[in-house]
Amino acid sequence: EAQVTQNPRYLITVTGKKLTVTCSQNMNHEYMSWYRQDPGLGLRQIYYSMNVEVTDKGDVPEGYKVSRKEKRNFPLILESPSPNQTSLYFCASRPAGREPYGYTFGSGTRLTVV
Amino acid sequence: RKEVEQDPGPFNVPEGATVAFNCTYSNSASQSFFWYRQDCRKEPKLLMSVYSSGNEDGRFTAQLNRASQYISLLIRDSKLSDSATYLCVVNMGNTPLVFGKGTRLSVIA
Questions:
Q1: Which residues of B49-64 are buried (b: 16+ CB within 10 A; e: fewer)?
Q2: Tens of pLDDT along chain A (114 residues)?
Q3: Helix (H, G, I), strand (E, B) or coil at A114
Q4: Considering only CA atoms, which of B31, B25, B49 is closest in space to residue B99?
Q5: Which pLDDT score, from 0 to 100, does residue B82 have?
Q6: How far apart are CA A45 and CA B89, in angstroms?
Q7: Helix (H, G, I), strand (E, B) or coil at B41
């Protein structure tokens, strides 16, 4: 089944403890993105990647890192999480190309930083 | 500068009603357009792409007006299961998709 898989689905952690949220897609998509969603603010892009070893900042990159060493994986790293990073996180992917491809989203990771 | 703007709602409509949402975008170079549906605490899912000529998928009709830079979604014969948040999404080519904040729809029995 074609899908984007995020792990974990739920995570409660303490301030300053490094964590990684994994994202993997099995559709051979070039583009991958991380979003966070907060009430009243909608989906805001954190980082995106247009292909292996190509990443760029989105609208809210502060406090996050990403890497794209393989096409299928795009982990999100919080080196020193803070309470303002408590949010619902989504990973998404789509193919490159001229056709109007939408994103396929993972099921989300609900992160709480205390 | 808000790139994609939507009325947040909520729109509360009775079953069987027709409801329309509009969305405006600021970048005239935008190339492709989508409507997504998001249920509470779930991931957004692609509802339909929006084409210049307009397109229909069952009870759903999407329209694009490039001159006025707006996109619309029409839902006919609303069902309870249509209750969700509808996100307008714009793509400017090789750049990330830009999402509106969404319009909430509640269909009431």
A1: bbeeeeeeeeebbbbb
A2: 889 999 999 999 999 999 999 999 999 999 999 999 998 888 999 999 999 999 999 999 999 999 999 999 999 999 999 999 999 999 999 988 766 778 899 999 999 999
A3: coil
A4: B25
A5: 98
A6: 13
A7: coil
Are β-strands B103-108 and B84-91 bridged in parallel, bridged antiparallel, or unpaired? antiparallel
User: What's the CA gap between B91 and A33, in Å, rounded?
Assistant: 14
CA distance A48 to A32: 6
Please, are residues A19 and A10 in contact by the beta-carbon 8 Å criterion?
no
Instruction: Enter the tokens of residue B95.
Output: 């750049």
The Cα–Cα gap between B73 and B1 comes to 23
Half-sphere exposure of A109 (CA within 13 A, CB side): 28
Confidence of residue B32 (pLDDT cuts 50, 70, 90): confident
* Region B79-102 average pLDDT: 88
| Token pair recorded at residue A27 | 């559709």
Helices (H) and strands (E) counted in chain A, each on its own, are: 0, 11
B 8-67 near A (Cβ less than 8 A): 31-34, 36, 41-46, 49, 51
Q: Do B42 and A33 touch (CB under 8 A)?
A: no
B89 with A102: Cβ contact below 8 A: yes
